[in-house]
Design a protein that fits this description.
CATH superfamily: Farnesyl Diphosphate Synthase
Shape: globular
Helix content: over 70%
Structural class: mainly alpha
Radius of gyration: 20 Å
Strand order of the largest sheet: 1-2
Number of domains: 1
Largest sheet: 2 strands, antiparallel
Length: 326
């Protein structure tokens, strides 16, 4: 089993990531005191910065990091943070990774406006820097993410979601931004089209694997990795791949009983029973296998790139994502 860590993955671009923190703080300066306070709260903890790291590694793998890479990485991180703030409003979440959400500390109105500001600031950064290609890539990602989220809501309400439909949903909800982060890195290094396409494929596949691993962790109880309680998807009546696969394999009577419990307000006993059923019918194991499949596909996409420490780090990132399964 790999012993990759995020620190080892980002080692080739660590100086750039350190400078990136200072760059983002400069980009986010504003004369509005309340906005400054909320932005300070959001960015005071560095977090994992996974997507900017992928942007820097992709640029390094294609040649070199430049000022354009910082612009692209900032756009990606501002967009990502905006979606998290808005997601907490939609889900009425009171916490995000163990800390109160913006809507919990201030209000839903403030959270929506801050999310809007972050999105607009990222897009404005692109126009100020005349990075029209970055703007095209990120706008496409936003469209994919919002469309996929709405499709998931619609299908989830009807409890009618097939395996392939779910994979298309997460291709938009999660993988689109991973793909954008990697493609922007390649563009910032003036990479040839073949390398740009390879990194976009890598980002999409690793994004799907990343989401599938998160889906598994909700059932295996790895709260410290997810930053939320176990069985949260069940608690929120969310259909994810482990559950969908389990439902496919159940007989009519078992499926009927499962859905009866799933539809109602859950107590601890219901949650435990449903989680056990998903495990019993192989939903978790099958999702683990599919996550490994997408992780391996992501690594194969990197074969288009010339050998370099950055390419090795991208390969190691795929291993890091998958090792969370154990």
């Amino acid at each position: 089993m790999s012993t990759a860590t995020l620190q080892s993955v980002t080692a080739p671009v660590r100086p750039s990531l350190e400078e990136f923190e200072r760059y983002v703080r400069r980009v986010l300066r504003t004369p509005v005191p309340l906005l400054n306070l909320v932005l300070w709260y959001l960015f005071r903890r560095r977090g994992k910065r996974v997507r900017p790291a992928l942007t820097f590694l992709s640029a390094a793998a294609c040649g070199q990091i430049s000022h354009r890479t910082f612009v692209g990485a900032a756009m990606v991180e501002l967009l990502h943070t905006a979606t998290l703030v808005h997601d907490d409003v939609v889900d009425r979440a009171r916490e995000r990774r163990g800390f109160p959400s913006v809507n919990a500390l201030w209000s839903e109105r403030v959270a929506v406006l801050v999310g809007d500001y972050l999105l607009a600031r990222g897009l404005l950064l692109a126009t100020q820097e005349r990075e029209w290609e970055f703007l095209d890539i990120t706008a496409g990602a936003v469209q994919q993410m919002s469309s996929a989220e709405l499709r998931h809501v619609q299908l989830n309400r009807k409890l009618r979601l097939e395996r392939e439909q779910y994979l298309e949903v997460i291709r938009g909800k999660t993988a689109a931004l991973f793909a954008a982060a990697c493609e922007i890195g390649a563009v910032s290094a003036d990479a040839e089209p073949a390398l740009r396409a390879a990194l976009r494929r890598y980002g999409e596949d690793i994004g799907i694997a990343y989401q599938l691993v998160d889906d598994v962790l909700d059932y295996t109880g790895r709260q410290q990795l997810l930053g939320k309680p176990a069985w949260q998807d069940l608690r929120e009546h969310k259909l994810t791949l482990p559950l969908l696969i389990a439902l496919e394999r159940m007989g009519p009577a078992e499926r009927s009983e499962f859905l009866r419990r799933f539809r109602r307000q859950h107590n601890g006993a219901d949650l435990r029973w449903m989680a056990q059923q998903v495990l019993r019918w192989g939903g978790v194991e099958a999702t683990q296998e599919l996550a490994r499949h997408y992780g391996e596909r992501a690594q194969h996409a990197l074969e288009e790139l010339p050998p370099s420490p950055a390419r090795s780090a991208l390969q190691e990132f795929a291993e890091f994502v998958l090792q969370r399964l154990w």
